Amino acid sequence: SLQPEALFQVSDGPLSPIDCIICYSSYNLSSRLPRRLYCGHTFCQACIKRLDAIANEQRWIPCPQCRQSTPTPRGGVTMLDLDLAVFLAVKSEKEQPRAAGRPEADSAFKASSKEKPVTQQPLGLCQETVPQPQFPRSSCCGRCLCCGTP
């Protein structure tokens, strides 16, 4: 029988959060988009398509983790919400090789800012006293907060 721990590990070690726990493939930006079921669990679009089944004259997607069923949207599995956090992680991983090849335009600024750490509040900020708020008194018109009259 399949143990719950086995869903999160393969022989090489733990799965990355950007891997589908059904097929162990990495999510991508095309056929293996990370789709979220109503229960909150995320799987790749290809695996969810295989889970889609008809029960009681309606299409359902049973979650392989918690067994809660998600009704299949009218447009099919591709209409399920993306898991935005996973999608953005996949997208940034795909863009990272291009970003690594770019020269750092602000490397001189980064080097100078690393030379002396900020250890105190800059002069001129927060030095003046903050005026005390004025609250209405019982005999007042009640407009003290706006007009400042006692």
List keywords for this structure.
150 residues; two-stranded antiparallel sheet; 14% strand; disordered N terminus; Herpes Virus-1; alpha+beta; globular; 25% helix
Q: What layout of secondary structure does this protein have?
A:
Blueprint: E1 9-10, E2 13-14, E3 34-36, E4 42-44, H1 45-51, E5 53-55, E6 58-62, E7 69-71, H2 84-101, H3 107-115, H4 144-147
Antiparallel strand pairs: 1-2, 3-4, 5-6, 6-7
Describe the sheet with the most strands. Answer: 3 strands, antiparallel
Count of DSSP helices?
Answer: 4
Question: What radius of gyration results from the CA coordinates?
Answer: 28 Å
| CATH architectural category of the domain at 4-89 | 2-Layer Sandwich
Mean pLDDT across the residues is 73
Share of helix, binned: 25-40%
Distance between the termini: 78 Å
Q: Find the count of extended strands (DSSP E, 2+ residues).
A: 7
Order of helices and strands: EEEEHEEEHHH
Report the CATH superfamily of the domain at 4-89. Answer: Zinc/RING finger domain, C3HC4 (zinc finger)
Q: What portion of the residues fall into strands of 2 or more residues?
A: 5-15%
Highest CATH level, the class of the domain at 4-89: Alpha Beta
Label the structural class. alpha+beta
Stated plainly, the CATH topology of the domain at 4-89 is called Herpes Virus-1
Low-confidence stretches: 1-13, 103-109
The gross shape turns out to be globular
What's the oligomerization state? single chain
**Biggest sheet strand line-up:** 5-6-7
Structure report:
This protein is α+β, with helices and mostly antiparallel strands and 150 residues long. The protein has a domain at 4-89: Herpes Virus-1 (2-Layer Sandwich). The protein is 25% helix and 14% strand. The chain contains four helices and seven strands. The protein has helices at 45-51, 84-101, 107-115, 144-147, and strands spanning 9-10, 13-14, 34-36, 42-44, 53-55, 58-62, 69-71. The strands form three sheets. A three-stranded antiparallel sheet has the order 5-6-7, with helices on one face. Strand 6 and strand 7 form a beta hairpin. The protein is globular. The N and C termini lie far apart (78 Å). The model is unreliable at 1-13 and 103-109 (pLDDT under 50). Keywords: Metal-binding, Zinc, Zinc-finger. Residues 20-67 form the RING-type domain. This is Ring finger protein 224. Residues 94-116 are annotated as: Disordered. Pfam families: zf-RING_UBOX (PF13445).
